[in-house]
Specification:
The protein has 373 residues and is mainly α. 55% of the residues lie in helices and 5% in strands. The chain has 13 helices and four strands. Strands 2-1-3-4 form a four-stranded mixed β-sheet, with helices on one face. A hairpin with a 2-residue loop joins strand 3 and strand 4. The longest helix has 63 residues. The radius of gyration is 32 Å and the shape is globular.
Length: 373
């Protein structure tokens, strides 16, 4: 996608922090090929103020790389954007278990995870993304969307729930913000967050071969097309993006074989994810970092934590160098004062010892008549 360098959105995928050199090179090649496409955004940045919003989307799992790393929430958000429906997002505290989010408010009605949210929204808003498809294509789209969701989506949710420590690094989560516990120390929150995974029953899940089969299936079906069914965004595109984007957004600092397989062997899926992001979410950064106070004035995410730590380290080094002469002077003064105190203490100790010796002689002389010596 050819855009101005000052307004081009940052790539969703970033493995430079700790990724393998081959993965980084493959990813750079895919993104460069995608940027050469001459394709304008399919939607404009919508006004999501409460005055104009038609739908209120309650979700959790917001992070710096994604509006939500939870596939169900990201799928609903993507459908609303593909349908060009103004919506407002409410980011709640992180919930990994249960079926609480996403939840949608439309007028006086509420749709929860147990409902088919996309189907209900389609009927209520009279907006069907699959209207242009033939009956056979609709059947194929439904079957493939179900396979992707119940294979890849379920596997990634299970990984997030069973690997809490890696999840924090995978999406660079700040638990004080994610759990809405600003008063508690971050170390305490991370301890209980990691420990809570052991209380959940771990399931075996699908073998890795089943997940790779699902990835290969959607990749072969997509082929060289921009979207699953030519130029139009359909429900299958929405579901596939909601499932694949959180997998590809896992940080390079975390080992995730499925992400590596997709980058190395299925570059068309990587390009598909970036294409949906660029053409449906011109305000992607605001949806990721906005609403929580972590976006800067120029619309970009706050300084990366790693760079911030490096900057703090350099600043602390400069402060130590500036304070070193003063510290040496204080140390010299302390040593001089201690030596003076010792010089004062030696005579007093000598006098005390002489007094004790004289007292001992007098006591011994007093005990002689009584035969006690």
């Amino acid at each position: 996608m050819a855009t101005d360098s000052t307004t081009a959105p940052e790539p969703l995928l970033d493995l430079k922090a700790g990724g393998d050199a081959l993965l980084v090179a493959k990813l750079a090649e895919t993104v460069e090929r995608l940027e050469s496409e001459e394709a304008p955004p399919l939607v404009a940045a919508l006004d999501t103020s409460t005055d104009t919003a038609v739908v209120l989307l309650h979700q959790s799992g917001q992070c710096a790389a994604l509006p939500s790393f939870q596939s169900e929430c990201l799928t609903v958000c993507t459908w609303l954007r593909a349908a060009n429906v103004p919506f407002k997002t409410m980011n709640h505290k992180l919930v990994l278990t249960g079926s609480r989010f996403p939840m949608v408010e439309l007028g006086d009605d509420e749709f929860g995870p147990s409902d088919n949210i996309l189907e209900k929204l389609s009927r209520r808003l009279n907006c069907n993304l699959d209207d242009a498809l033939t009956p056979d294509q609709k059947i194929l789209s439904y079957a493939m969307a179900s396979t992707v969701e119940h294979t890849l989506g379920a596997a990634h949710r299970r990984w997030c729930n069973e690997n809490r420590g890696q999840l924090l690094r995978a999406y660079d989560l700040d638990l004080k913000r994610a759990l809405k516990r600003s008063a508690m120390p971050r170390g305490v929150l991370e301890f209980f967050f990691r420990r809570s995974a052991s209380r959940n029953e771990k399931s075996r899940g699908q073998p890795e071969d089943e997940r790779l089969k699902a990835v290969r299936m959607i990749s072969e079906f997509l082929g060289d097309r921009p979207f699953c069914f030519a130029e139009a965004v359909t429900t299958l595109d929405v579901v596939a993006f909601g499932v694949l984007a959180p997998i590809l957004a896992v940080s390079g600092n975390v080992a995730y074989p499925l992400r590596d397989q997709m980058i190395l062997n299925y570059p068309n899926l990587v390009g598909f994810v970036e294409r949906v992001k660029q053409r449906l979410f011109p305000d992607w950064v605001d949806l990721c970092c906005g609403g929580g106070g972590s976006a800067s004035e120029d619309g970009k995410c706050a300084v990366d934590k790693k760079h911030k730590l490096e900057l703090d380290h350099l600043n602390s080094g400069k402060e130590r160098k500036q304070q070193q002469p003063q510290s040496d002077k204080v140390l010299e003064n302390s040593e001089a004062e201690l030596e003076t105190q010792n010089q004062r203490l030696v005579p007093s100790v000598s006098v005390t010892l002489q007094s004790l010796l004289q007292m001992g002689h007098r006591t011994a002389a007093w005990m002689v008549p009584f035969g006690l010596r």
